[in-house]
Specification:
- The complex is a heterodimer of chains A (about 325) and B (about 525).
- With about 325 residues, chain A is α/β, with parallel strands linked by helices.
- Chain A folds into 3 domains: about 150 residues, P-loop containing nucleotide triphosphate hydrolases (Rossmann fold); about 60 residues, Helicase, Ruva Protein, domain 3 (Orthogonal Bundle); about 100 residues, Zinc Finger, Delta Prime, domain 3, CATH 1.20.272.10.
- Helices cover about 60% and strands about 10% of the residues of chain A.
- Chain B has about 525 residues and is α/β, with parallel strands linked by helices.
- Chain B has a 5-stranded parallel beta sheet with strand order 2-3-4-1-5, sandwiched between helices. In chain B, strands 6-7 form a two-stranded antiparallel ribbon.
- The chains are: A alpha/beta (about 325), B alpha/beta (about 525).
């Protein structure tokens, strides 16, 4: 008989609110709402990997028994299509049918709601109001500012914050224990540092480390992080600021990162930002560093409004080279 | 002077050249529309294909042959909701026409160049056309060049679609020969063929060209043709590049941008980006920064125009790319040799196509792990790359969970087909082989376990439902018992009161009688 292995982020996902670590105040309030078995529409916002989706699923688990769950809960993942047609048809059709079983309402979970177009959000607003009696929405997003205000005003907003070190370590310890890993304090610290408060990253890093050895030390964690951040990212900056800079080499690094690693322009800007911040004044002269960051902010903005990442990166690299060579 | 395209437009069905099937379909459609016994699935006919190949003239020729009158609305008319309502009225008058003129048996409504409907000026146009299609009593034929735009999707549902293809040069030659004979022109076949080639197999275009060059002379030579070709043709991309990079004439390049064949905004931008390295001086860092900044700014204004719909930004796009760029490019003596594909396919398109694989894998992982594709790429891919090169057992399990391969039903069990998605993460050859071996070994077992679990779950569910139903029935029984009890009590009382109606009333009655009698007495 084989035991099925899965991503630990899934197999160790808390099933109840009590199991969720961190976010104490929010969890307390949610528990009260669940006990009353009634709640308003809710909006969970906050950075990735801190338990928003998990809390929504836990609420579903606590409110409905298994037989009621399938008929009364609809999940729309970020990977699903959630254009205006889906809102007008699928969601509306689900929202207006009476709940099955003993339940007095149904739940719709909309993950990454801030990625929906504002047209689709406007279409949602009417459905939320009309079928308020029988359907509750849980909207999940990274930035509540990207949710149109009419929807925000219809929801109880819960702002999730980045997880604290002790919370992440507590969880990692539990997983390590169940998976028979040996892990020391330094390794746990290193895992937390590299995750920047994102439980998903931390657990994935632990699982990746465990695939190398069952004895996870700080060394192993660093080794994982070395693989995780392709050397091309720092390479981009180094190519630009060296004595004989190579625009073409830097440009090629950008292309490789996008093509073979599938990294989006926006993520690449994010990586470059943290990379630049981590570099000391020995690596890069301060004036160049801050000039680079200021150019990066412009690049970030342009890509965010929909400009072409490669053409914008070209200008960033050429400008960075010109600034360094002045 | 009468234009030859009108003068020699086909007058009978037999004069129509090419597209036999589509032309026949017009006749078929008209028959079906007029004959109530035949089934008419779609109430309108939509003919589409490149310009000048006989869509409109076929309709008119056939209409004449079959003695129909044609009511035409074309792009020169305004076709918004209001103006189309007059057309709607016309579509109702089919029968009136019939009675007025014995020669004409009916009317065809021809809406020409549907794709020329402007989004703003002809607002509501398409919806109104659909309404006309619903209500019309006259057959409706529409023509269009390009119906690929999604705003025609609904319209297409209501129409029978027929594509017109450009006729072969030979077929067009027959027409041109006939015309030149009637106009007594002296012209060789080879010149006519060139003429046809220049007009890109457009019948109308080649007839127009023939008339243009014949206006001066009765004998046509190769030289006449040259005048025409210079005036008519659009410019090639290389010509534009020459103006921009070699002559560095920004003003001329600016004019030429609109004449380049087969070019749109972003394609032009990407192609210039690809070609720049061949023209710039790599060691002049400041100059390069300025040049790439121009491109980035052109991209920025294009984005503002397209995403935020600030269309006035577009005019800056060409100004930056031509006038400003020309002042920055260093002079180059000769044009570098370029491959044909370098002028056709921007490298960014290649990047986009290569990104498809990570995006596809990302969406698979995202749906299993409840995250978006982008989040899967940034927070799962890096770690999966390690796992898929270090731990073949775990990798095999994950590959099955994410389904990073295809399956097709085989004779005994499902056949596994590798689609390169495992190779995307697993670059180490030995590990790669181990992972695949492991998957072949455990995939059937895991499938069995899963189906068992599904069975268990549904069993649980059924049991639970059964229990609930049982409880419900028990409760109902108890309720009905109670009901019977209470109702029987009431009935008993009723019976009692029926048996002895005086039981309750008697005392009062007797009292009354008593009092009455007493009062009587007194």
């Amino acid at each position: 008989m084989v035991t099925i292995e899965r991503m630990w982020t899934e197999s160790f996902r808390p099933k109840t609110l009590a199991e969720v670590v961190g976010q104490q105040e929010i969890i307390e309030r949610l528990k009260q709402l669940v006990q009353k078995t009634d709640f308003p529409h809710m909006l969970f916002s906050g950075p990735p990997g801190i338990g928003k989706t998990t809390c929504a699923e836990a609420i579903v688990n606590e409110i409905f028994n298994p037989s009621e769950r399938s008929g009364n809960v609809k999940r729309l993942n970020a990977s699903d299509d959630r254009g205006i047609n889906v809102v007008r048809q699928d969601i509306k059709n689900f929202a207006r049918v009476l709940p099955s079983g003993k339940s007095s309402f149904k739940i719709i979970i909309l993950d990454e709601a801030d990625q929906m177009t504002s047209d689709a959000q406007h279409a949602l607003r009417r459905t939320m109001e009309t079928y308020n009696e029988i359907t509750r929405f849980i909207l999940i997003c990274n930035y509540s500012s990207r949710i149109i205000t009419p929807i925000q005003s219809r929801c109880a907003i819960f702002r999730f914050t980045s997880l604290k070190k002790k919370d992440i370590i507590k969880r990692l310890n539990k997983i390590a224990k169940e998976k028979n890993l040996i892990i020391d304090k330094d390794a746990l610290s290193a895992l937390f540092d590299s995750s920047s408060g994102d439980m998903r990253q931390a657990i994935n890093a632990l699982q990746a480390a465990s695939s190398i050895t069952a004895n996870v030390t700080a060394e192993v964690v660093y080794q994982v992080q070395g693989y995780v951040k392709p050397s091309e990212i720092r390479g981009i900056i180094l190519e630009c600021i060296q004595a004989k800079p190579s625009f073409n080499a830097a440009k090629n690094n950008v292309r490789v990162l996008m093509e073979t690693y599938g990294i989006s322009g926006q993520d690449l800007v994010k990586y470059l930002n943290s990379e630049l911040n981590a570099m000391s004044s020995n690596d890069i002269p301060d004036p160049v560093k801050f000039a680079a960051l200021s150019m990066l902010s412009e690049l970030d903005y342009r890509i965010a409004i929909g400009c072409n990442p490669q053409i914008q990166f070209d200008a960033f690299l050429a400008n960075l080279i010109a600034t360094t060579q002045k | 002077m009468v234009s030859w395209t009108q003068k020699y437009t086909p007058k009978r069905r037999s004069e129509v050249v090419g597209n036999v099937e589509s032309v026949n379909s017009i006749v078929g459609y008209l028959n079906r529309f007029r004959n109530p016994d035949l089934e008419l699935k779609k109430r309108a006919l939509l003919l589409y294909g490149p310009p000048g190949i006989g869509k409109t003239s076929s309709v008119i020729a056939i209409a004449k042959s079959l003695r129909f009158d044609v009511f035409t609305v074309n792009a020169s008319d305004q076709r918004n909701k209001l103006s189309l309502q007059s057309v709607k009225q016309a579509s109702m008058f089919n029968s009136l026409k019939e009675s007025l003129n014995d020669q004409i048996i009916g009317q065809i409504l021809l809406i020409d160049e549907v794709d020329g409907l402007s989004g703003t000026a002809d607002r509501g146009g398409i919806r109104e056309i659909i309404e006309i299609i619903h209500e019309t009593r006259a057959p409706i034929i529409l023509t269009a060049n390009d119906i690929s735009d999604q705003r025609f999707n609904t319209l297409k549902k209501y129409c029978e679609l027929r594509e017109f293809f450009p006729p072969s040069p030979k077929e067009i030659l027959i027409i041109l020969r006939r015309i030149s004979e009637k106009e007594s022109l002296e012209v060789s076949d080879s010149i006519l063929y060139k003429l046809i080639e220049l007009s890109e197999n457009d019948i109308r275009g080649s007839i127009n060209s023939l008339q243009t060059i014949a206006s001066g002379a009765k004998i046509i030579t190769e030289e006449n043709l040259e005048v025409l070709s210079k005036r008519d043709r659009s410019i090639l991309f290389t010509e534009f590049l020459n103006t921009l990079f070699i002559d560095r004439d920004g003003n001329l390049a600016h004019k030429q941008t609109k004449m380049i064949n087969n070019m749109d905004y972003s394609k032009l931008l990407f192609l210039i980006r690809d070609l720049l390295p061949k023209f710039i001086n790599a060691s002049d860092y400041q100059q390069n920064a300025n040049i790439y900044e121009v491109l980035a700014r052109a991209d920025l204004v294009l984005t503002r125009a397209q995403k935020e719909r600030v269309w006035s930004q577009l005019s800056y796009f060409y100004t930056f790319l031509t006038k400003e760029l020309a002042t920055l490019i260093p002079s180059v003596s000769n044009f570098p040799t370029l491959q044909e594909w370098q002028l056709q396919i921007p490298s960014y398109w290649i990047t986009l196509s290569r990104q498809k694989k990570p995006t596809k894998i990302g969406s698979k992982i995202g749906s299993v792990c409840n995250v978006s594709t982008q989040e899967a790429i940034s927070s799962y891919f890096p770690y999966l790359r390690i796992i898929f090169n270090k731990d073949s057992n775990l990798a095999a399990h994950l590959a099955i969970d994410f389904k990073l391969f295809d399956t097709e039903p085989g004779k005994k069990k499902e056949k596994i087909i590798w689609n390169g998605e495992i190779d995307y993460f697993s670059t180490n050859k030995t590990t790669n082989r181990e992972i695949k071996k492991k998957i072949r070994e455990i995939y059937p077992q895991i499938e069995r376990i899963k189906s068992l679990e599904v069975g268990k779950e549904s069993l649980k569910e059924i049991q639970e439902q059964y229990n609930q139903a049982k409880l419900k029935i028990r409760e109902e029984r108890r309720n009905t018992k109670n009901n019977r009890k209470t109702s029987s009590d009431k009935e008993k009382i009723k019976e009692k009161s029926l048996k002895d109606p005086n039981l309750e009333k008697k005392p009062s009655l007797t009292k009354k009688v008593k009092t009455q009698s007493l009062s009587d007495f007194f």
